[in-house]
Amino acid sequence: MTEFLNDWGISLMVFLPLIGAALMAFVPASQEENHKTIALFTTLATGLVGILLIADFDYDNSDVLQFAVDARWIEVINARYTVAMDGMSLPLIALTLLVVPLVIIYSWNHIPNPGNPKTFLMLILVLHTGMLGSFVAQDLVLFFVFFEVVLLPMFFMIGVWGGEDRLYASLKFFLYTLFGSALMLVSFLALYVLAGSSTFNMVQLAENVVTEDISKTAQVLIFGGMFMGFGIKVPMFPFHTWLPDAHTQAPTQGSVILAAVLLKLGTYGFIRIAIPILPEAAVEWAPWIGLLAVIGIIYGALGCLAQTDMKRLIAFSSVAHMGYVMLGIATLTDFGINAAIFGMVAHGIITGMLFFIAGSIKERYHTLEIARLGGLLVQAPKMGWILAITTMASLGLPGLAGFWGEFPAILAAYDPAPGLSDALFRVYMVIAAIGTVLAAAYLLWLLQRTAFGTPSEEFENDPHIHDVVTEEWIAWTPLLILMVVLGFYPRLIFGITDDAVINSLLALGG
Amino acid sequence: MLSTTSLFAVSAEIADPVVKTNLLYEWVGLVPGTMALSFLLILFFGKKLPYKGAEIGITAISLSFLFAVAMAFTWIIDTQSVLNGDKGETAAAVVVDDPIGVGETAAPLIPLAEEGEKARVTIDPIVKEFDWLENGNTTFGVGTLVDGQSVMMLFVVTFISLLVHVFSTDYVGGDRRYTHYFAFLSLFTASMLFMVLSTNTLQLIVGWELVGVCSFALIGHWWEEKANSDAALKAFLTNRVGDIGLLVGMITLYFGAGGTFDIIDINSQAVAGEIDHTLLLIASCCLMAAVASKSGQFILHTWLPDAMAGPTPVSALIHAATMVVAGVYMIARLYPVFWDGLSISGSNINLMALMGGITCVFGGALAFVQTDVKKVLAYSTVSQLGYMVLALGVGAYTAGLFHLFTHAFFKACLFLGAGSLSHACHHTFDMREMGGLRKIMPKTFATFVIGSLALAGAFPFAGFWSKDEILAGAGVWPGTGGNGTYYIPFWFGMLTAAMTAGYMARVIWLVFMGEYRGHAHPHENGNRITVPLMILAFMATIAGFLNMPKPFADFLGIKDAGLAFEHWVEPASVAHFPAISHASPSLSLAIVASLVAGAAAAAVWAYYRRLHQMDPKATAYTDSFVANNKLIRAGHTMLVEKYYLDHLYTHLIAGGTKGPLARAAYWFNQNVLDGTVNVAGRSTASLGRFVYRYIDQGAIDGAVNASGLGASGSGQVLRGIQSGKIRSYATLMFGAAALLAAVFIVVV
User: Fold this and answer.
1) Does B542 contact A at CB distance below 8 Å?
2) Using the beta-carbon criterion (under 8 Å), do A441 and B213 form an inter-chain contact?
3) B512-536 burial code (b ≥16 CB/10 A, e <16)
């Protein structure tokens, strides 16, 4: 078993969704139930392979790349099919494996207009492959391919199944991200050439950067290209404007996947690629990343306070929350990056959950305009409670998952890596701490206006408004449990990531 | 060599650690565990049970209380035996860590005591920890820390919580969310104890925030009305403001102490002077912001009176007796940090003493103009919390904690008394709708008066002893000694003593004397309400004797009974607590303070008597010198408007952020940032069209298609902007990328 997993485990996990999608292509579009069943079973099978991998993972050596496969691929440019996972990617892989089946379960009775579950679910499966592939790829070209594979399904998801303004939003999402990708590709190519044109392997590149003695200017510029590619995906202020539109227009499923996993590709890129390969450049860039991160925290929160639409508010909150993740990364310390990974998972769970709730509210009330909502706790008490718990988690309440991404990141900013200005980062620390107040303000304000009070006349006797239904329970319960469990026992993630993070920062000498 | 740094020299006199332990100390974690389990059980099964979940809560809190009592007794017995010379079971086997670096001279020195008292040694804290998380190769734990302070707090919390549980079965009986109410009482108790038993500051932060969210949920218990949910939000957000200080302060301490959250470790380092003084100062100031928000200190106290929107038993438990003292408790927990950081010893003013002093006076003044009995008590709580902070600020550690202890009983008694009044008077708290209730509600009257006497500091009730100790601790009164000469805090404290007596006299007159002015049919309440009142009144009567001064104990002829509370609670001769000196009690000070308070009460009493003689239904003068004097009226308005702080916070700061500032940021987002993106997109599209139209089609294919271009062009432009042409953009981007890469490689 272990041998099989070592050789085929990761590849099987990554490509199973594609096989499922291919299978669905042969089933007529009219057999909707069959499509849903195939899609669900595919993701569950993927999850099963994933669970086997996670169970077989050697946690005592979580800093070692495990289940590694290295095969020939595009020999002309020395790009190889290299996949593996370590403690840094494992939590994100687990998150992806969890969220996608939940999204498909939620889709059972919630296929957005204009219907056509066949294509819709096939796109989700393609996304699944792209996301998993990005987290296991150890070769820059392979990473880039998976990174881009994600783009197209999401583009169609927003463009076809989205809200009123879907065309504008999908195009903006696509072009903006593509723009970043292009610059990232430039960086990858430049890195390849400058490091001796011999390999795209991430680990070897990191070594080559040292041995080939690439000038600092070149490193800083290459880092800049990656920064654009990853930073837009995160998204970091001021490159975030695609996000609120994409989120607001996307169907619920799209929003959930976007928030839960897609944004993490950007932050993951920083900690997996940019920083370990170019540590010197990272030190040069870190103060600026930190600056944009804390601006994002405050700015995103202010943006939230100005919103009148619930979904758009949640979308803007991602800008603020990812700011904490980026602040953790910008400290270039093990403490901060561990917090960042925790923050990524926590944000995935919590914001994913918020989008689920927003979707269900929209389905019942046919609006997400905050001013028209109210009294959710009266009309759908269980959903109101779930919203309350999730907002509490989102504002970083200790005891729930959000706190462990936020507080250690703020703490790490007190004492950033050698070479970074303590004073500057301490200013960031205070700003980030102030951001927690604003986060509480917009989230509680949202809670107050939607859940508390009494229902407005408009919806008072609306028979469509009912409490949580079965498929919602199935899709939501795992997320809610994780929110609490991770909140009370953060070791579940920190214990896995710590060694891998320390290992990835060895080049920094800290 | 010790006398070189006089501040820390005494602290080096550390005895061998006295190690004592037993199952109760080891397993105290079961208490918050039980309450947390109770929360879950009530939440999931409460509604199906005959008493709607209350039975689970009451069982759990009773068990917790029994545990706490057993532990308190064990602790007292252990402490007394150590006082009598017991060296502990394993003392000899313990290796002293020598954190001060004074070497072999440190061990045998013990004589650190007031004159005439024999050297006192306390039991080492009993710490039990589990791994919680690891980060950066460091493992952080979560667990329980048992020492005098946490044993005392455990007793107070479970005691008041138990009585509040019983009281609530009647008071909120039939409520629409009865089950949720009890669930949150359990969760609150669990969180509070989790915080009280913290072994490290990280755990303290977690507990601190969890009690905050319980407070939020219980203030907003009746969330259908906007006023209630507003109050809940205000409480939470104000506390969050203070939490900035908490986070930054604790982070500073973490790094200052070389990367540890461990409370004992931080304290030991602070005592030994191993943490930079500036860092301690910064940390102390930040933490004071947290204290200001949680413990209702001026200027972050404004949420506390609004929090009275919650059910009254909640006000008694959370917003008077337990949660709001979390700030005071935290100061005491990290006392060495503040001791050094704010230079408490040998000074005559510091941030903590000043903040406490201002709070007790300003809060007390506000209590005079309230018409709602709960609001009077709320401002009184603000004022008394100020007293506790003042005490700790002047170095009177035990006095501060002792006041926390006594205050919990008499203030819970008063709040539950107010609840009893409201329960009888058709759910009103307005004192203008009361009056003459002494005959109708004799039990409530008697207990309320006892609570008021204790609060006003009348001999021999509980408040007298603790208040007196605080005033003595300020070190101003001749012959008291203490840790410095804190003139301003002392006189503020004295003024507050007068004000406290004054506003409580006003309450008693308005509620119990004269004739009934309301329209309900008041009646005395049942046993589930009056029995908790009587128990609390009893405690409010006797609790003070626990720490009576030695001369008084000798006077009573009870040997060794003096300062019992201090002996049980205050650490001595240990490495993690500074060598504070203790003020001596002063009979003249006690007499003067009592006279001042008595005079104030008498003046207020006379005022209302005269008013009553003029008009039996009146509750305030409407036409007199006092009412007509401009200056006095301005002062009165100032108080009624609560110093305009609410206007500042709600309208200027919150409103400004929510309104103009947020809108401006969003405008910037939509028009500047997004505008740039859109312009860039459109320009690229135009460029593409230009290339296509004029170079590709125009030059090459132009002649052929010239006629058709005009017609399709306009439509294409619109479509181009709306939907764009992904393929052409993509081609363009990748072309540009390849080009850029080439340029880059050539140049660099």
Assistant:
1) no
2) no
3) bbbebbbeeebeebeeebbebbbbb
